[in-house]
Amino acid sequence: MNLTERWQGQPIAIATMHHKEQVLGPAVERAWGLRPIVPPDFDTDRFGTFTRDRDRPGDQRATARTKALAALEATGAAIALASEGSFGPHPALPLAAVNYELVLLLDRTSGLELVGEALSWETNYRQATLRDWDAVDRFAQQVGFPDHGLVVSLGNPAEGQAVVKGVRDPMLLQDLAMDYLARSPDGTLWLETDMRAMHNPKRMQVIAQAMDNLLEKAQSACPSCDWPGFWITQRLPGLPCEACGWPTALVRVHRWTCDHCGHQRSEDFPQGQTADPAHCPACNP
Ligand SMILES: [Zn+2]
Ligand SMILES: [Zn+2]
Q: What's phi and psi for 8, nearest 5 deg?
């Protein structure tokens, strides 16, 4: 399927109110000649917010799809693009924060759905309860304020406390901090990084990486039915140890699957023939 032939000159609705069109728009224009439009007054907060005052329905892919469908509805376009991010401790390393971004492109006419992903350790995602201005100032410097915005609150915003989002002005930060520290019953305030894309350049970069991943997948066509998005769906371990041949936890096989016809292909040894003995449970228990 030639996507440029199919899409050239057509509108694509970008489901965002946080200026993600700044990175997503030029990408789809360059790749396929699509015409990005943003639905007017599109409220993506109803699909969940980072400050946890509203919960997020479904998993990330389902939420992105719901946003894309709402953008199709709002604009009458046949193609939409939505993105959805999450932050939190890495499953294996609970002290390190990671940012996972997903972008989803939906073509209502063909039923094509493409998904791009990116995972980054380069995130300033952080929350803290602080008791004085010095601590606030230090936090602000460490997370890259004022290029990156802050959320200032009397207490955890999840508990419905007074909250100001998108703080980028040093004078405003100082005024809010002094006011909240004086008013708070226990003499503390809640500070966190604003993770909405337009207040967080680090996150915007990860969204751009997820978009690159989507573009790469779009160019990979199924060898059987030519449907775009033929990609790795399983990574199977068992790469043999270089010294003793014992199967290790490293990847031995990539399995590729077509979303459309179900065609599968196995790719043996995608990352080399043998594993370093350092990864071997027999040589290096
Ligand atoms: Zn196929
Ligand atoms: Zn070994």
A: -40, 125
Alpha carbon of 240 to ligand 2 centroid (Å): 8
pLDDT of residue 89: 73
Ion ligand 1 residues within 5 Å by Cβ:
222, 224-225, 227, 258, 260-261, 263
DSSP 8-state code for residue 238: -
Domain annotation covers residue 227: no
Ligand 1 centroid to residue 110 C-alpha, Å: 14
Instruction: Give the total number of structural domains in the chain.
Output: 3
Among residues 60, 35, 30, 38, the alpha carbon closest in space to that of 47 is found at: 60
Same domain assignment for residues 206 and 167: no
My answer on whether 84 and 145 are in the same domain is no
Helix (H, G, I), strand (E, B) or coil at 210: helix
Would you say 14 and 81 are in contact if contact means Cβ atoms under 8 Å apart? Answer: yes
* Cβ 103 vs Cβ 81: under 8 Å: yes
Dist. CA 144–CA 124, nearest whole Å: 8
Q: How many angstroms does the Cα of residue 233 sit away from the middle of ligand 1?
A: 14
Segment 141-187, tens digit of pLDDT: 999 999 999 999 988 777 767 789 999 999 999 999 999 999 888 88
Tell me the pLDDT tens digit for each residue of 59-105: 888 889 999 999 999 999 999 999 998 887 766 776 678 888 999 99
Contact 194, 87 (CB under 8 A): no
% the chain with pLDDT above 70: 93
Identify whether residues 19 and 153 lie together within a single domain: no
Sorted by sequence, the CB contacts under 8 Å of residue 264 that are 6+ apart come out as 255, 256, 257, 258
Q: Indicate which ligand has the atom closest to the C-alpha of 283.
A: 2
Residue 45's pLDDT band, with cuts at 50, 70 and 90, is low
Q: What's the domain range around 246?
A: 232-279
- What pTM was estimated for this model as a whole? 0.82
- Residue 149 Cα to ligand 2 midpoint, Å, equals 49
